[in-house]
Structures are given as C-alpha cells and as structure tokens.
Design a protein that fits this description.
The complex is a heterodimer of chains A (about 300) and B (about 325). With about 300 residues, chain A is of the alpha/beta class. Helices cover about 35% and strands about 25% of the residues of chain A. Chain A has a single domain, classed as Rossmann fold (3-Layer(aba) Sandwich). In chain A, the strands form two sheets. A six-stranded mixed beta sheet of chain A has the order 6-7-8-3-9-10. Chain A has a four-stranded antiparallel beta sheet with strand order 2-1-4-5. In chain A, a hairpin with a 5-residue loop joins strand 9 and strand 10. The longest helix of chain A is centred in the middle third of the chain and has 14 residues. The relative contact order of chain A is 0.18. Chain B has about 325 residues and is mainly alpha-helical. Chain B is flat. Chain B starts with a helix and ends with a helix. At the A-B interface, helix 4, helix 5 and helix 8 of A face helix 10 and helix 11 of B.
Chain lengths: ~300, ~325
C-alpha cells in the first residue's frame, strides 16, 4: 500500500528547497496544486479522519473539537503557538497519550475507517503502524544496530535482521555514516545523526504513518535541512504528520498545514483549537482566517 | 550613587569602571562562614580518625600475633584462642538470605510501583509508608522477627526458632524498604524519552521494562542493593533479640540444614560479646573484631563504587 507512485517531482523539490527565498517558500506551486488535485480526486485518500476530537488532562480540556482529514502520502504540518495542543493532537494518532496519567480522549480518530479509540483496539498494534519521532533525539543507550533492531524484534520479525537494519538506515540517510561501526553506542553520534537514527528506528517496523514532534528543534540548520530532505524522500512510502514551531519548515516541507491556536473560553479556561486547515501554499500565501494570517506573517501577539 | 556622581566629573569612563571593578572590600562575613563550614568538617574528621586510630592501636597486637588464626578460630573463653570464624560465617549467611529474598522482592515491588501502578491515593500512601518503614528502628524489626519467625508456631518449626534462618529472614524484612526505595529511584532516573521510544516502536509494557528500563536502571539498583547488604552485615540490634549467641557456641556438628536451624552468631554480635567480657585482653579482641567488620564493610562498599563507576550512564 506504500508504493503509491505519488512522489513524482519530490526529488527536485527537496533539492531546490535550499535556494528558495524564505518569504516565498513556494516556487513549485503549480506542480503541487496539480498533485493535490489528483489526490483529492483519488478514492481512499484519507488515512486519518479526525472527528470532533477533544483531549482532556483530568478536568483540563487541552484541545477542543478538532476535525481534520489527514491524507495518505502527504506531509501534514501542524503549526501554532506554544500551548495550542498540536503535540497533544499528534500524540493521539498513535495513542501515545495513553501513557500520560489522567489523559482522556473524546471524539473519534478513524484510521482507515477504524476508530483508534474503540475498546477492542490494541494500542501496541496501533503504534506498530503509526511510528513516532520525538522532539529530543531519544535513541536507546545501546548500539546503533540494536536501536534499529529492537522494534522489528518485538514485532516478531522473522527475516534477515542485518538486511532490515541496513535498509532502514539507508532510508534514513544514515547508512553511509555508520555502516563501518554499527556496534558503536548510539550516544556517540551527533544530535542530527541521532535523530536520523530515531527515524530509522521508526521506519524499521514498516509503519504506515510517521509522526514527528518538532523533530528538528534540537538540531542545527544543516542537520535540520538533512531531516527535511529526508522527509520529502520518505513521504513517497509513508504518510507523515509533523508538529513544528518553525513556520519556514512547515512551508518548506509540508503539503497541507493545520494552524492551531489557544482560545480563552468562558471562566478563562484555555484550550487549543484548530483555526484553519488547508493546502500549505494557501495557508502561507492566502489564508482565509485573519488569525492564521497574523500568525504566519509574524504579527501574532 | 553619590560616589558615582562625584567621580563622574573629572575621570575617564575607563577609570570609573576600573574603580568599580576593583574597589570591592574584603568579604568578612563570607570568609567567616567558610571557616565555620571548614571547622564543622574538621570536627567530624577528627572524631572519626581518633576512633579509627584507637581501634587499630588495640587491634594490631591481636592481628599481628595471630593473623589468620583470629579469623579461623571459634568462640572461646580464653582471649588468646577466641576468634571470629563463627561470626563471619553467620553474618555471611544472613547476607546471602538478604540477597536471595530482599533483592528480588524489593526490586519487584519497585518495578510495580514505578512502571505499573497508577498514581492513585493508594499508591502514594504505599510509597510514603515504605519511606517510613525504612526509618523504623532496627530493634523493632527484631521484635517483629521474634514474633513471626521465632515464636509463631508454624514458622518456628521451619526456622528452628532462634536460628540463623530467623535472623536472615528478619534482616531481609529490615532492608526490604531500603531496597525498594533505591531501586525505585534508579528506575525513576531512566528518562521517559526512553520509555516513549520503546512504546513508539510498538513494544508492550513488559518489553519496555525488560529491554530498556531494567538494563539502564541496573547499575543504580545494584549499587543500592550492595549498600543494603552492607547494612545487613553491620546491624546488631535485631540479632540480639533473635538470639544470636553471645558466649559459648558450638557449631560445626550436623549437616548444612541443621546448622542453619541451630545456634549461631554474627560479627557485630561477637564485637558486643567481646566487649562485655571482663578479661582485659578481650579489649584487644574487640578491636580486632571491629577491624575485621570494618574491612569487610569497606570491601562491600568498594564493590558498590566499582559497579557504579563501571556502569554509570549519562543521559
């Protein structure tokens, strides 16, 4: 299901992102809209259908009434100010919030039409299909090889582990740098390499979707660029949802962008809400909501 | 402020800055405080050193005259023949009990509390109580040991009453809360990022605990456990209640299990025993026994330090 053949033109896009001026991130607008056109017409396009999602931590409603469809083989970016709940929403896609004491979800997230929060759904199985890359690179304090091999091993992978490790590291664009010393402890790698190792680790279990929670926030610009190029390569095989603080990053890599913000409701309760969700190009050039425009142009208070 | 105004008139900016930066007066109060802290340290050190010197001075004649013989001789009423063999044997047996019982129980409880238990009022109450238990005086555990292992009908049949088995079981209960606390702290020190990484690739709770949390927490757990064994080795009060023999003791007859259920003694008890004898020569035996105890404790602590340094992790 991963070889959709939709990645035409992504190579040149990612290659060209370096030279693109910051303010006008999109030169390939026409290509992209056409691609999107094709996508929205295709059936089975939506991989996640979020319906009236609210997340509560105890009595505190962190995000409220989120509804958005996530499309296959696209990069969907979630942007917004701190505390708007974008990470919270991201962590709902693989039920990572289950691990937080007192977290509760209302509404639905349909994954290929199946409600992820239905009683009989096994969160462990969800996480095998929906992998995650975290904000801070968090390799296991083990060898590079073991980092990649752990996921497949617990999933009962029966093939050649060496081949799988190599393939995963290649896909994560890390193989050439580490191939001579796979037994080296992952902590000896640089931050950028560690994050690519985490991506390799996520890929190794052959997920359907990769969630990325500000994957570049702890990295320098060069490492960031490598990860972004990597994301453009990966989206041919996977669906990627990324949370980012960096609007340029969202503009550079994503196909669609969801803008979240914090709303202060009655009794001064703050909750994250989805303001606007559209093609990235439209969000950054011609948003329909004033709050989105204020944010992407840097006028947000 | 006034000074600055006066200076500003006819001095260059650099001169003003120089005076500001260098014109500070000696910090008398700060120095006094430092001296106070240093003297506190010195007092503690002097007391400790005096104690050690005193003990070693008394111990040297015995240890140099008899050497290994002191370690391999049994209890005797003659100071020149009395040794600590039975004490070492008893103490080591107790430590083995602690290692076999308290270690798995304590670590298991810690894993449950940290990784499985939900954060409810009940868990918090249990946590607080374990901390309190660690602070309960050891004599109280001795009373508990008497009640359960020595006098309680069914169990005393197994333990043999006042035996090294009862002592080992009591000592295991005594150190159990400490094992739980140190293991729980080691487990808590494993960053959540590691757990999330494990869950993120589709591992179950058990797989995350077994493959990641436990291996990374192991050095801390091990260090803590070794230190609790040292505690069990040096503890005397509960053993007096559990009936470690002071005075004449015949061991060595009967099989292994019979010995476990028979009369016993332990190193700290022998120190106590020697110290209460009237013969003057026993003073030196007391000191020698203390030195043996200290050396073994130092060795155990050294093992803990080596383990910690060898496996220490930085996140």
């Amino acid at each position: 299901m991963n070889e959709g053949g939709e990645g035409v033109g992504t190579g040149t896009r990612s290659g060209g992102s370096r030279a693109r001026p910051r303010q006008r991130p999109y030169t390939g607008v026409a290509v992209k809209t056409e691609r999107e056109q094709r996508r929205s017409e295709a059936s089975g396009d939506v991989i996640f259908d979020v319906r009236d999602l609210s997340v509560l931590y105890g009595d505190f409603r962190a995000v409220r009434d989120i509804s958005l469809p996530i499309h296959e083989h696209e990069i969907t970016a979630m942007i917004g100010p701190s505390g708007c709940g974008k990470t919270t929403v991201l962590r709902c896609f693989n039920r990572m919030n289950d691990l937080i004491e007192g977290a509760r979800v209302e509404g639905q997230i349909l994954y290929h039409g199946v409600d992820l929060y239905a009683k009989e759904v096994d969160p462990v199985e969800v996480r095998r299909r929906v992998g995650m890359v975290f904000q801070k690179p968090n390799p296991f304090p083990k060898s590079i090889y073991e980092n990649v091999a752990f996921g497949p091993r617990v999933a009962g992978f029966g093939g050649s582990m060496d081949d799988l490790v190599e393939e995963s590291l290649r896909k994560a664009a890390l193989w050439e740098e580490v191939k001579d010393d796979l037994r080296k402890n992952a902590y000896t790698l640089s931050g950028g390499q560690q994050q690519r190792l985490c991506i390799a680790r996520a890929i190794a279990v052959a997920p359907d979707v990769i969630l990325m929670d500000e994957p570049c926030s702890a990295l320098d610009p060069i490492a960031t660029l490598r990860i972004e190029e990597l994301m453009r390569d990966l989206v041919r095989d996977y669906t990627i949802i990324i949370v980012t603080h960096n609007m340029q990053q969202a503009a550079r890599v994503s196909d669609r962008t969801a803008f979240f913000t914090v709303e202060v409701g009655e009794e001064g309760r703050r909750a994250g809400v989805l303001v606007e969700y559209d093609a990235t190009e439209r969000i950054f050039t011609n948003p329909s909501n004033q709050r989105t425009e204020d944010y992407v142009t840097g006028r947000f208070g | 402020m006034a000074r600055r105004g006066a200076l500003a008139g006819d001095l260059t900016a650099s001169e003003i800055v120089r005076r500001r930066l260098t014109g500070r007066q000696a910090d008398v109060l700060g120095r006094a405080f430092e001296a106070l802290l240093l003297s506190a340290l010195l007092v503690a050190l002097v007391i400790l050193v005096t104690l050690l010197v005193d003990i070693f001075r008394d111990a040297v004649p015995v240890l140099s005259d008899r050497g290994v013989d002191f370690l391999t001789s049994n209890v005797s009423s003659l100071p020149e023949r009395a040794g600590v063999r039975q004490g070492i044997q008893g103490s080591l047996t107790i430590v083995v009990f602690v290692a076999i019982l308290a270690f798995p129980l304590g670590v298991g409880a810690a894993i449950y509390l940290e990784e499985y238990a939900r954060d409810t009022r009940m868990t918090r109450a249990i946590n607080a109580n374990i901390r309190n238990l660690a602070g309960v005086p050891s004599i109280v555990y001795g009373l508990l040991g008497i009640a359960i292992f020595v006098q309680f009908g069914g169990l005393s049949g197994i333990t043999g009453g006042r035996s090294v088995v009862s002592a080992g079981l009591t000592m295991s209960i005594l150190v159990l809360p400490i094992v739980v606390i140190t293991a729980a702290e080691a487990i808590r020190a494993v960053p959540d990022g590691i757990r999330e990484a494990g869950y993120g690739v589709g591992a179950t709770r058990w797989e995350v605990v077994r493959s990641h949390v436990l291996p990374y927490a192991a050095p801390g757990i091990l260090t803590g456990t070794v230190l609790t064994m040292a505690r069990a080795f040096g503890e005397a009060a509960p053993l007096i209640l559990i009936g470690a023999a002071t005075g004449f003791l015949s061991t060595g007859s009967g099989g292994f299990f019979e010995q476990l259920r028979g009369a016993y003694t332990a190193l700290p008890i022998q120190v106590y025993d020697f110290a209460t004898r009237n013969l003057r020569e026993f003073q030196n035996s007391t000191a020698a026994a203390i030195v043996v105890l200290l050396v073994i404790l130092l060795l155990v602590n050294a093992v803990a330090i080596v383990l910690r340094n060898r496996y220490e992790r930085r996140w």
